[in-house]
Design a protein that fits this description.
Helix content: 25-40%
Number of helices: 6
Number of domains: 1
CATH architecture: 3-Layer(aba) Sandwich
Mean pLDDT: 91
Largest sheet: 7 strands, mixed
CATH superfamily: Vaccinia Virus protein VP39
Low-confidence stretches: 1-14
Distance between the termini: 40 Å
CATH topology: Rossmann fold
Strand content: 25-35%
Structural class: alpha/beta
């Protein structure tokens, strides 16, 4: 399961925006399966995702649309303009009242508002240690005490080394050790396109509460 190609910016440095845009414009995003991940459907059906909701790293919008179509207030943001354009086009075609914006998940404070729930479908595991800490701080900036974040990420039980970084339960707990309570971590699957991997990847689904 290979990732999208590296894209260089004008200074010949790797461009995060270009990297993710290339994944969508070249149709090489293994995680873009054309439907919501099953875990989000199950949580939505169980009433476990409380609005207002932020879909952090929404990609082409399947999870934002899933929640919007259930009448929930939700904003999807992604660093990739190509992904956001595709998400908006889906919303138009489906007649869904969903909102999408281009935004940096490492700077969520720029949104200028708070959310009851943040969902993260395959974002946490893309970061190195430094950006992982920045991301957790960014999540804290948009959640009041009692606010909830769900993290769906690759687990260490996924075989091989291609694709995103594998994450252990201990790493999740360490990342959210200060001013958070990790309520539970469950083994699940993160579905990917079958042309990249024939079987779903092993994953963790963590439910984490912001504390005072």
């Amino acid at each position: 399961m290979e990732g999208p190609p590296v894209v260089m910016d004008d200074a010949n440095e790797p461009s995060p925006v270009g990297f993710w845009d290339a994944a969508y414009t070249t149709d090489s995003a293994p995680w873009d399966i054309g439907r919501p991940q099953s875990v989000w459907i199950q949580l939505a059906d169980a009433g476990q995702i409380t609005p207002p909701i932020l879909d952090s790293g929404c990609g082409t919008g399947e999870h934002t649309l899933l929640l919007a179509e259930r009448g929930l207030e939700v904003l999807g943001i992604d660093i990739s303009p190509a992904a956001v354009d595709a998400a908006r086009a889906k919303a138009t075609r489906r007649g869904a009242n969903a909102t999408f914006d281009v935004g940096d998940v490492l700077a969520l404070d720029r949104l200028g508002r708070r959310y009851a729930t943040v969902i993260d479908s395959g974002v946490f595991h893309v970061f190195d240690d430094s950006d992982r800490a920045r991301y957790v701080a960014s999540l804290a900036a948009v959640l009041d005490p009692g606010g909830l974040v769900y993290v769906l990420c690759f687990s260490e039980h996924t075989p091989g080394t291609t694709g995103p970084r594998r994450v252990t339960q201990a790493e999740l707990r360490a990342a959210f050790a200060e001013s958070w309570q990790v309520e539970r971590i469950e083994a699940t699957q993160l579905e990917v396109r079958k042309d990249y991997a024939p079987e779903p990847a092993h994953a963790w689904l963590a439910r984490i509460v912001r504390t005072p």
